[in-house]
Write a structure and sequence with these properties.
CATH class of the domain at 77-238 and 297-403: Alpha Beta
Shape: globular
Helix content: 40-55%
CATH superfamily of the domain at 77-238 and 297-403: Malonyl-Coenzyme A Acyl Carrier Protein, domain 2
Largest sheet: 6 strands, mixed
Number of helices: 22
Strand content: 5-15%
Length: about 600
């Protein structure tokens, strides 16, 4: 870098060296955005790598540089984890389509055309003015309230992130598992399900996220024997709370509370309870623990929704594709691998969603089966945090590909830096351009030009060149026929002779060029503007000349007949272009008029507001 080598070239040359030594025991990944940062990161790495060996800890920087002295890729397997469908947010995955244009053609987007517009409007809201924080909060809540849109958006994000990691960078996971509704995302992301349109139609036509588990929550109303929504439209009879407490403590505290449920165990010290708000607050007060209300209020993982088991299985009954990835999929229904059959998958998802979820148990099962590197291929990084808590005293590594406030480019590059340092098999070539190691900075071509010297004209008009033109054939110019009408043919097209055709000398116009030509060529010569001083009537001369040539060649070639159809097509095309352009101008004029009226109305409104 001190020698001025470009970042792009330096990175590519370094990558070429890395490919030759990819079997080395350790790998250091340095991430930087410019030369200054690269120098700082490299200097920090010298000390950081030494400390990593001395202390047995990983070294990483905020920019993403990473090194570990205990790579897990050779001893542990990679597992993809799919989070629940409550982590999406405004602007998620905004740059994925620009960074990886191929995802535009993903089958999931092609199958969900009828829903993409609606979901896209919620996730990527548009405004003529910058949205305030209050407006953004309102839009965020609208997204959270639309359970089906949230669910479908997270399925799409999980699918795209999984394909980018697998197809572009060739990261091949051994296992995959999901948290709650993440099991549904997992089936789509790994390619077990490809009928996304059928899945979307079934989801949106079902009452599950309409009024059974969200909105009116009729499943709970019926289970608790509450009045129907027509008599009691208030939906604030259900809530979800996150508690910082152990599962055993919570189970003791909810004894006697018929409307409070332990729904999820995230870590040994973090759980989720759900039910009647007043009853949940009594439990929290009894425990005396830290707690906060979850941003979602749908019903899941409790006996109050047991009536929806059959409907959940029905919505998730889809054709199964061949598992070409050879990934072992796990479910929380039995905390074991899933048998990839249509009915088994549907029943497993329904069972897992209708009962308490013990995520700690699921994580430990995968770890015992060999998973040590966990990649969160979905929205947010909450599952990575829980896995770190559950495996705090065991060797493992977690990576999240998406985090609110971090752009997609940085997230993916940081993830790849960790994976390559942990010796995980992958392909980094999409990040680099091919540069030969021996390539050097391009040499500039210089040519000296001497000013002054001999006259250019004298060098050209040598005696030898002048001699070449002494025997030039002089031709007599035909008398100019004045007032002769030009023959434009049937379609008003002027007929010109081919310039490259040899013609009889007597029809060649006689005029002496002011300067001798380089080569004496006995060809037809069309008078040009430069010759106007020697041709009194240029138009008449061209007319006479064209007429004469046409008569001479009539016996062999009829130019008008050969070119007539071509001219007709040209005329037709030109006419079409002119008409289209005229229509465009008319439309633009009408648009300008409408815009002017809109501006006038806006000014009038502003004046009225100002006066009021």
């Amino acid at each position: 870098m001190d020698s001025g080598t470009s970042l792009k070239k330096a990175a590519s040359m370094t990558f070429a060296n890395y490919q030759k030594r990819s079997q080395a025991s350790y790998t250091l990944a340095i991430v930087a955005r410019n030369a200054k940062e690269l120098v700082k990161e490299s200097e920090a790495a010298i000390k950081g790598v030494n400390h990593a060996f001395e202390r047995g800890e990983e070294w990483q920087t905020p920019l993403g540089s990473y090194f570990t002295a205990k790579p897990l890729g050779k001893t542990g397997e990679v597992a993809f984890i799919y989070p629940a469908a409550v982590n999406s947010y405004l602007g998620i995955g905004r740059n994925l389509f620009r960074l990886f244009p191929k995802v535009h053609d993903d089958i999931i987007l092609q199958n969900l055309d009828n829903r993409v517009h609606h979901v896209e409007g919620l996730v990527y809201p548009r405004s003529l003015n910058k949205l305030s924080n209050r407006q953004l909060e309102t839009l965020e809540q609208q997204l959270l309230d639309d359970s089906a849109a949230m669910f479908e958006n997270e399925i799409v994000i999980a699918r795209l992130l999984s394909n980018i990691l697998r197809d572009d960078f060739q990261v091949k996971p051994k296992f995959a598992f999901g948290y709650s509704l993440g099991e549904v995302s997992m089936m789509s992301a790994v390619g077990v399900w490809n009928q996304f349109g059928q899945m979307s139609n079934a989801l949106n036509s079902s009452s599950l996220f309409g009024d059974r588990l969200s909105g009116a929550k009729n499943a709970v109303r019926e289970f608790w024997q509450l009045p129907p929504v027509q008599e009691s439209p208030d939906n604030n009879f259900w809530c979800n709370y996150v508690l910082i407490a152990t599962p055993s403590q919570v189970r003791e505290s909810i004894v006697g509370e018929n409307r409070v449920y332990l729904t999820q165990i995230n870590t040994p010290e973090e759980v989720v309870i759900a039910g009647e708000p007043v009853a949940c607050e009594r439990v929290i007060e009894k425990l005396g623990c830290n707690a906060f209300r979850a941003p979602f209020d749908h019903v899941i993982h409790c006996e109050a929704m047991a009536s929806e088991h059959e409907e959940i299985a029905k919505v998730n009954t889809l054709p199964v594709q061949e598992n070409q990835q050879e990934i072992t999929l796990y479910s929380a229904s039995e905390y074991a691998p899933i048998k990839l059959e249509t009915k088994e998958i549907a029943e497993g998802i329904a069972t897992g969603l209708c009962k308490e979820l013990d995520f700690t148990r699921l994580v430990n099962r995968l770890y015992n089966d060999g998973a040590k590197i966990f990649i969160e291929t979905g929205a947010g990084s909450v599952c990575s945090r829980w896995i770190d808590k559950n495996l705090s005293d065991q060797e493992h590594m977690t990576i999240s590909l998406n985090r609110r406030g971090v752009d997609d480019h940085s997230s993916i590059v940081k993830a790849l830096a960790k994976l390559v340092s942990h010796q995980v098999s992958l392909d980094l070539s999409p990040l680099y351009s091919t540069v030969e190691k021996t390539s050097k900075q391009g040499k500039h071509s210089h040519k000296k030009v001497m000013l002054g010297g001999d006259s250019f004209s004298e060098n050209i008009l040598t005696a030898e060149n002048k001699k070449l033109f002494q025997n030039q054939v002089e031709v007599n110019q035909e008398p100019i026929q004045k007032n002769k009408k030009l023959d434009f043919g049937e379609n008003n097209q002027t007929i010109f002779p081919p310039v490259e055709m040899d013609l009889p000398e007597k029809i060649i116009p006689k005029f002496q060029p002011e300067k001798p030509e380089v080569n004496p060529i006995k060809k037809a010569v069309v008078p040009t503007i430069e010759n106007k001083t020697k041709i009194p009537n240029l138009a008449a001369n061209i007319t006479s000349y064209a007429s004469t040539v046409t008569e001479k060649l009539a016996s062999t070639v009829s130019l008008s007949s050969n070119r007539q159809s071509q001219y007709q097509k040209v005329n037709a095309n030109n006419l079409m272009v002119h008409k289209t352009h005229a229509n465009f101008l008319q439309s633009r004029q009408e648009f300008s008029q409408q815009l002017s009226e809109i501006i006038e109305l806006q000014i009038a409104c502003a004046e009225q507001l100002f006066n009021s």
